[in-house]
Amino acid sequence: KGEDEHPGLHFVPSTLTTARAIAWYLDTVADLDGDLKRQSPGTPDVKRQGNSLIVADPQHRLAGFLLSAPTAYTAPMAGRKDTALCSVITIDDHRCGMPGGMRGMQFETVVDEDSKTVGLRLSFTERSPCPVYQPLANERQVLDRMKAAQQGASAALPEAGQDYSGWSVESLAARMQKLRKQALGEIAVFKADQRLLQDIGARDNPQLLMNLA
């Protein structure tokens, strides 16, 4: 397409409507033939993994955009005390507007096992028992506690595990290489989560609303 058809950046608000549109678009792209994707430069890297979509998001732009939706929340934000602290974000839909007729979207940062790059896992869910259709009042306090927990957590000592004294040098080297790859993946997720927490704490920043523009 010519440059006249893309005059520049456009302001796109992050809302339930745009979250639905992104969900349907990515769900469609995941099923496209590889040749069709290559014919359209800029098509996002999306693949289906079980009941979820894995979207390449190395710069955390998609996560930041969805996160700025007014009703995006974590389970602790909604006061669900029986739920462990986690980085899964939920956007509830008041009708069956998500792919597959689902009533909500959940997303979290992950590391793609194949490409070893940071991505976003999206899944579409049934109606939540206590859906959130309006911005929550306690999100700031919860997010402050999340930040404090991340910054104050000390590394726990590893528990006693398997006895490696009888392993060969080659087996130990292979084991070390595997652990190194796992550690790099965890570090990538941790850094992405840190950026996510910073973005959450600055939700009044209008730049978040233009992350995908």
Task: Present the secondary structure layout.
Layout: H1 16-29, H2 34-38, E1 46-49, E2 52-56, H3 61-67, E3 89-92, E4 104-111, E5 118-125, H4 139-152, H5 169-201
Antiparallel strand pairs: 1-2, 2-5, 3-4, 4-5
Briefly summarize what is shown:
By secondary structure, this protein is of the alpha+beta class.
How is this structure best described in words?
This protein has 213 residues and is α+β, with helices and mostly antiparallel strands. 34% of the residues lie in helices and 14% in strands. It has a five-stranded antiparallel sheet. Helix 4 (139-152) packs antiparallel against helix 5. The longest helix has 33 residues, at 169-201. It starts with 15 loop residues before the first helix and ends in a 12-residue tail after the last helix. Residues 150-160 and 207-213 have low confidence and may be disordered.
Strand count, sense and closure of the main sheet?
Answer: 5 strands, antiparallel
Strand order of the largest sheet: 1-2-5-4-3
Taken in chain order, the helices and strands follow as: HHEEHEEEHH
Shape: globular
What are the segments in which pLDDT stays under 50 over at least 5 consecutive residues?
Answer: 150-160, 207-213
Percentage of β-strand residues: 5-15%
- Percent range of helical residues: 25-40%
What structural keywords apply?
alpha+beta, five-stranded antiparallel β-sheet, globular, disordered C terminus, 213 residues, 34% helix, 5 helices, single chain
